[in-house]
Amino acid sequence: MTAPRGSTLRRRRLGHELRRLREEANRTHTDISKVLDCTQGRISKIEAGFLAIRPMEVKVVLDYLDVPQYEREPLIMLAKEAREQGLWTKHSNVMTSRFITYANLEAEATRICTYEAEVVPGLMQTEAYANAVNLATRPRDDIDAERYTEVRLARQERVLSGELDLWVVLNESAIRRVVGGEQVMREQLQHLLELAHQPSVTLQVLPFSAGQHPAMSGPFVITRFADRRRDPDVIYLENQTGGLYMEEPAEIERYNVTFDRLIADALDVGRSAKLIGRVIDELSGETIPY
């Protein structure tokens, strides 16, 4: 078994393996919860990769399921490694627990495919734009908006280094909505054009002229990993209070098909850059090279 890189991905893979073994043994969550003397809810979260499980508990489950010895050691090792702290876990003061899970998965991903309807995605935001978005969407006094922005900018390092492939489809409204004032928006759009020149970044704009489209229900992120057989895609939908993960095969297939249709409906890379350039011109009243 090839070990995944980060603790969050290890926890997710371990959960999937434990679920597979439980189902092959025709056992239920209730059966496993009785063996571990815990709630069925905890078993569900372990199998979904949201909670870690102690190596000794893994051994107890494997004994109960009568798993062959050659399968045990890799799983027990995964359990040990999965208890390590994820890269972004220390930022719980500015990130929700569900978004920390997403950020840790993002840190272990090889490609991110995302559709955004209202805003430029966090992985492409300038500091000033990010501050404006955070102040508007996170008005609570107990959230340090500037610190939140620092974390968001730090997540961009893998994009800037080319380590993470990023494919973004932006609704035209995201490039036309003036966030933070005209100067901030001009700088943000210019930053998009600069990022679009990177080999690891693909940026397309879905124009208003495209009319109805398959993602009218809202934005989404598809997170992909190096070994898609062992580590299937994760679909992430962010909302006001946290986020929703989708990992069932039918859900993953639907969002991948939706993204493919968005790619087909959107302007190609060259025409997308020209449209962004025109919006910059409209904001500045002068011609800027792009």
Automatic annotation (TrEMBL):
GO molecular function: DNA binding
Organism annotation: Saccharothrix ecbatanensis
Pfam families: DUF5753, HTH_31
Protein name stated in the entry: Transcriptional regulator with XRE-family HTH domain
Origin: domain of life: Bacteria
Residues of the HTH cro/C1-type domain: 17-72
Matching SUPFAM superfamilies: lambda repressor-like DNA-binding domains
